[in-house]
Amino acid sequence: MALSVEEVTRIAYLARIGIGSEEAARYVKDLSDILAFVAQMNAVDTSEVEPMAHPLDLPQRLREDAVTEHNKRELFQSIAPQVEAGLYLVPKVIE
Amino acid sequence: MHTYTLKELATGLRARHYSSRELVRHFLDRIAQHNPALNAFITLTEEVALAQAEAADARLARGEGHWLTGVPIAHKDIFCTLGIRTSCGSKMLDNFLAPYDATVVAKCQQVGMPLLGKLNMDEFAMGSSNETSFYGPVKNPWNLACVPGGSSGGSAAAVAAGLTPAATGTDTGGSIRQPAALCGITGLKPTYGRVSRWGMIAFASSLDQGGPMARSAEDCALLLQVMAGFDEKDSTSVDVPVPDYIAGLNQSLMGMRIGLPKEFFDQLDSAMARALEEAIAEYRKLGAEIIEISLPNINLSVPAYYVIAPCECSSNLARYDGVRYGYRCQNPKDLKDLYLRTRAEGFGAEVKRRILIGTYALSAGYYDAYYLKAQKIRRLIAEDFKRAFETVDVLLGPTTPTPAFKLGEKLGDPVAMYLSDIFTIAVNLAGLPAMSIPAGFLDGKPVGMQLIGNYFEEGKLLNVAHQYQRVTDWHRKLPPGFA
Question: Which class would CATH give A5-43?
Answer without folding.
Answer: mainly alpha
